[in-house]
């Protein structure tokens, strides 16, 4: 028995848990509040994609005469071939049967329907894949064939990472969702409710909390809440998470509270603690934090708690216990390097800082607390939590889920990882800002960083200024170059249809993106069309951005807003061409084609010079070093030999240092006294050293013995070390 049951409803990710409940459980542990968590999505997926269940689905589809398309007729005709390997394919994708990959890769082992039609194209798109990755991709296509069969013949609301998403998107009124909830549960609903009931009987919670991050989780959360209300009326039910935080801030429909007793907003730790107190205490006086509830037949918003939200340092380490970590499924969906990180492999999720340190982008929800309130966590605490999670989950991969990880904290994190000699793999979301200099990127790589994703948005300086992104295209090019040269993969979020964006700017933005891929400083990207949200600066002041919103009466969800842009341009017409060109650019193809080739309607010629990005990267070396810049040596201790050299009657004592790195050997020679100083200094600027040293510190130390530190620092020998691990941060 546990007092609280924390649930992520279907569906989010197949390969790793959504982290909200792990954060909450970690916090509840610090308060000695007993809780149990479950990812209902993965449990339902595993029940659904089993040989036994699909046998039933094939029979239902046939008996109800739902098999109409040629594709689904083919799948049904090959049903035995689909059924036989299904359980083994799932086990392989869970990492339990690695040798099965060779069988999967055998020609004609897996049955093939429409999803496999892209295979010929993907041979060149993926290049020569390893056998495990190739098998994962083939197995993914096989599951997507079966998913298509479900959508057409069983339940058209199904999706691997969402369910009935349409019902949650821009649902200003509760009417449509409420009507669906009055209908009989679907086949997938029945699986969901069966798994839920088994857990309710085991845990016997007093309070069930649903974390609903996305519109694609909303329907299932309501369906589960409906089931609990009907069958376990004494259990209280709450909803929190990303969807209510952004969409339900104006909820007023009393029917919503036929399903939920409480809806909380923003940070969930203090609200959930107070709900626990309210449910388990007999006290008449109850306090709430940012909580909607029903009172005297009306929806009321209670925020009467005097206690402030907890600081990030006091929230505890996320707790992954209770979750079936060995049951998640790694898939390779599409030929996009960053998307493969999202869908392939198990990642521990952590946050470097609450909120966004920039907090100015005009399309973003910067008026809401989850963006507006910026609070970083000390690097030592972060790495403590990383070590605890590695022990708990036996996974050394970390995805930092910040809005934008701050460079200064990333630097401190990397140094702490290196100091503790941890072997971890991590990636994060960033802003392409100038502080990501070459040496910082090298440091991040040395600590285990493998990828970053960031918003380039519209590759136009006018529009970047309007967005208040704080970067220029030139700056983005230089930063992506720095990451790429450090062997850190770079993914760019790209936007089209921003208010006042012209057709010319869309085409010029595409040309910028083409050049970034062509020169090799960008490896992955994704275009999405601008969406107007209620809590962004544009949503709050649309007339300032040339936008006319189409307002509606709000009684349920309020976030995405339909609007008319003063330009009158139909930006959706660019969608296919932008995405098709990007798919090719990601795989080194089509750079020589005129941009017109990607569109089936007339577009203007780009006004961007063909060498614009190349010229952005031709920057002069900056010899200015800040006195307080940290100096760090990532290399090894050299082998040392002494020698003398005579010239014009003078004998010079030299120190030759031989350095070994992981792939090469190199030597430098210095006058003996300066060489001894350098040898001693290298020991004190290693990340393992207790105190970090600055450029000014080294300069002062050097000049107590010798003259002109700058001449020494920019000598050929030191510049050689700068190439192989001597960093200025």
Topology of helices and strands:
Blueprint: E1 4-8, H1 20-30, E2 35-39, H2 40-48, H3 51-63, H4 70-77, H5 79-83, H6 86-93, H7 100-104, H8 119-126, H9 131-153, E3 158-159, E4 162-163, H10 165-168, H11 175-182, H12 187-203, E5 207-211, H13 215-231, E6 236-240, H14 242-247, E7 262-264, H15 269-280, E8 291-295, E9 298-302, H16 337-343, E10 348-350, E11 353-354, H17 369-372, E12 375-376, H18 379-393, E13 397-400, H19 407-419, E14 425-430, H20 438-447, E15 449-457, H21 461-467, H22 473-485, E16 489-496, H23 503-518, E17 524-529, E18 532-533, H24 537-540, E19 547-549, E20 560-561, E21 563-565, H25 575-585, H26 612-616, E22 630-633, E23 639-647, E24 650-660, E25 665-671, H27 672-684, E26 693-694, H28 695-702, H29 709-713, H30 716-723, E27 726-728
Descriptors:
seven-stranded mixed sheet; 729 residues; six-stranded parallel sheet; alpha/beta
Count of beta strands: 27
Which sheet architecture does the biggest sheet show? Answer: 7 strands, mixed
- How much strand? 15-25%
Q: Please state the overall shape, judged from the principal axes of the Cα atoms.
A: globular
Helix count, per DSSP?
30
On the 0 to 100 scale, the average pLDDT is 92
Residue share in helix: 40-55%
Low-confidence stretches: none
Give the terminus-to-terminus CA distance: 52 Å
Widest sheet: strand ordering = 2-1-5-6-7-8-9
What value does the Rg take, in angstroms?
A: 29 Å
Give me the secondary-structure category.
alpha/beta
